[in-house]
Specification:
The complex is a heterodimer of chains A (394) and B (169). By secondary structure, chain A is mainly α. Helices cover 62% and strands 8% of the residues of chain A. In chain A, the strands form three sheets. Chain A has a three-stranded antiparallel beta sheet with strand order 4-3-8. Classes of the chains: A mainly alpha (394), B mainly alpha (169).
Chain lengths: 394, 169
């Protein structure tokens, strides 16, 4: 199998031999599955190519190595080394060093890769999460269809576990935000919740990677929320965007771009929040482990050994935190999606109610501020929000 | 431009967006079609079932309480009835006894009266008879005295004899 070419070689060799460990490279996507220290499994490469004559072509290879072996690609590696496609020896050397999976391929015939449709690590683990979702919930649905859980109490840890989560999404996410329209959007919210949760949890498994630690994946998820929101938007929602109520006409022309921008910032925030949270844990753990090597390099191996228990303890703590974050982020994404959809489908007839709500929120924030440890700012905010109080005014 | 493999963290990867959109859309469709429907329906049905069962149980409890109250009231009424009947029976018995005694007394009195009347009548009859007897005897004695012109001693003896001949009572 061409897929198994990379297997058996130590992947972290670059780091072991005094090279550099590419943290970002590890945290980001790649066209291989990393089973260090057992090796890497390369994934298929698929390119949409426009060649030098302007013809479109889709080319697929079982692995990066076989794409390189085809002799159709020049290679640009991270160190700005350009290997022409006819440098067979150089390319073989690159493949032997297992660095080729990081290399950029450039068609040798003067064309360009328009879109790289290659199967990547995050796609594989995302698909794994999707397949897990399908297996678990379709079998769960059949269980319910058989009557277990419908006519009787749910049985077994499997059914009870997922039922608790499903009921949580329904009663604590969908219902409060969507009201009586919750049933229409519940399937989407459940799918998003469990897909994100499974992706996050797969990221905690050794050799696994969280597909949600990829901005493209979270972007797609946010896009789904965006489309669901826009397609289910009520008349009130669009009226609110394109003719904001309760403000003078000149202000409306300022608000309209802001509101339109708001349509896009919401899903953007969703995507970035999930992506940043999921990749941050990974980076923090790698940084904490990296401290051992930094201390070793700076102060010698004795200090490195002494630092390592602290580093490992902190890394374990972050790891446990990641378990929590896996659930929290799945919840946050779903809850915010539900909130956005809820705002879009809501049909409120009293537009005047909007402004007082806004002020209420401001007052609430101002009142909450003095409890912060930043007493200087807090006092000034409290003073501005309660000008009648003589002590503050003095 | 091309999308390099080991892209920076922040660079969205077009191929991945494409595949992911398809994959997630497919996932959404499959789960929507085969999983969430039956699951949420079953959950709703079960919740309604539980709600209904609880309501039924409450109704049954209320009914049972009602029946219990009814029973208690019925028992109390029955007890009162029984006591009343007993009392009435006692009263009836008492009345009956008094009446019986009254009747007996009246009977006795009547019998006494009858007896006294009888006695009186018998006495009157006896006195009548005695008087007639005595008159007869006196006449007979007078006849004998007149018939036997007797001396006084003899007269005395005659009278004594006569008297001795009389029945003792």
């Amino acid at each position: 199998m061409a897929l198994l070419i990379g297997l058996g070689a130590p992947a972290a060799r670059a780091a072991d031999e005094g090279g550099q460990l590419d943290l970002i490279g590890h945290a980001s996507d790649g066209v291989y599955l990393d089973f260090a220290p057992f090796g890497k499994v390369e994934l298929p490469r698929i390119f949409l190519i426009q060649d030098g004559d302007g013809n479109w072509d889709v080319r697929a290879y079982a692995s990066t190595a076989s794409a390189l072996a085809s002799g159709q690609y020049d290679v640009v590696t991270g160190e700005d080394v350009h290997l022409p496609s006819d440098d067979v020896a150089g390319i073989e050397e690159l493949i032997a060093s297992h660095e080729h999976v990081y290399a950029e391929l450039v068609p040798a015939d003067g064309g360009r890769i328009v879109v790289d449709f290659s199967i990547t690590r995050h796609l594989v683990f995302g698909l794994l999460a999707a397949v897990l979702c399908v297996i678990i919930f379709v079998s769960l649905a059949r269980r319910y269809a058989r009557g277990i859980g419908r006519d009787s109490a749910p049985r077994g840890i499997f059914q009870n576990l997922f039922e608790a989560l499903i009921v949580f999404v329904r009663d604590d996410i969908a219902r409060p935000n969507l009201g009586d329209k919750y049933a229409r959007f519940l399937p989407y919210l459940l799918t998003a919740f469990f897909f994100i949760l499974f992706c996050n949890l797969i990221g905690l498994v050794p050799f696994g990677a969280a597909a949600t630690a990829n901005i493209a994946v979270t972007g797609v998820l946010a896009m789904f929320t965006f489309f669901v929101t826009q397609f289910s938007g009520s008349r009130d929602y669009w009226a609110h965007v394109f003719w904001p109520p309760g403000v003078p006409v000149p202000i409306k022309f300022i608000l309209i771009p802001v509101e339109v921008l708001g349509l896009f910032t919401k899903p953007f925030a969703l995507a970035v929040r999930l992506f940043a949270n999921m990749s941050a844990g990974y980076l923090v753990i790698l940084s904490l482990i990296g401290l051992i090597f930094i201390f070793t390099a700076l102060f010698g191996s004795v200090v490195g050994v002494l630092v390592s228990p602290v580093s490992v303890a902190l890394a374990v703590f972050i790891y446990l935190l990641k378990v929590l974050v896996a659930f929290i982020q799945a919840y946050v994404f779903t809850a915010l999606s539900a909130l956005f959809i809820g705002m879009a489908v809501e049909e409120h007839h009293a537009h005047e109610g909007h402004t007082p709500e806004w002020h209420e929120t401001l007052d609430h924030d101002a009142a909450a501020a003095p409890s912060l440890p930043l007493s200087g700012d807090g006092a000034s905010i409290a003073g501005s929000s309660k000008p009648a109080e003589p002590a503050m005014a003095g | 431009m091309s999308f390099v493999v080991a892209a920076g963290l922040l660079e969205p990867y077009a191929g991945l967006i494409f595949w992911k959109a398809i994959a997630f859309g497919l996932l959404l469709f499959i789960l929507y079609r085969f999983a969430w429907g039956p699951i949420t329906k079953a959950l709703t049905e079960r919740e309604q079932n539980i709600d209904m069962s609880l309501r039924k149980a409450e109704e049954a409890l209320a009914e049972a309480r009602q029946i219990q109250a009814d029973n208690a009231r019925a028992r109390r009424e029955a007890e009162q009835d029984a006591q009343r009947i007993l009392r009435e029976a006692r009263e009836a018995a008492e009345k009956l006894r008094t009446e019986e005694i009254e009747r007996t007394r009246a009977q006795i009195r009547q019998m006494q009266e009858q007896a006294q009347a009888e006695i009186e009548r018998e006495k009157q009859g006896a006195l009548q008879a005695l008087r007639a007897e005595v008159a007869d005897l006196a006449i007979q004695a007078a006849e004998k005295i007149l018939a036997e012109n007797l001396d006084p001693a003899r007269q005395r003896r005659l009278v004594d004899d006569f008297i001795n001949q009389l029945p003792r009572n």
